[in-house]
Design goal:
about 130 residues
Amino acid sequence: MPESTETKIAARKLESSTEHAKKALDAATEATKAVGQTVKQHAQVAYEVGKEHITAAAKDLGDAASATYEDVRGLAKTKADEYQDKAKAAWGDATSKAQTYQSETEEYIRQNPFKAVGIAVGVGFLLGVIFRR
């Protein structure tokens, strides 16, 4: 059976549509690649920007922690110095009182030597009794 003109035209149209479909598919593939490349480039740029911001945030956080540490350290040193001064003052007061009591005791002993010897003997006797048990 000979092919009719209409069949030939239909076959050419079918071939032509197949070629157009292949070209459309190739164009879609190229478009997908282009979109993929664009997305990849944008993602890379976004990654780099994000990385810079994370690095800056970490540095700022470290600086803040350092500053806070220095503040706390300064406050602790101030308190330590304050308590050291109070301790020195208390030690000075205790030393002064001890020296005063010593002076008063020496003066009492000089003024009342027999009473002092009697008190010392009595205290010695009581300690002897206590420690003997």
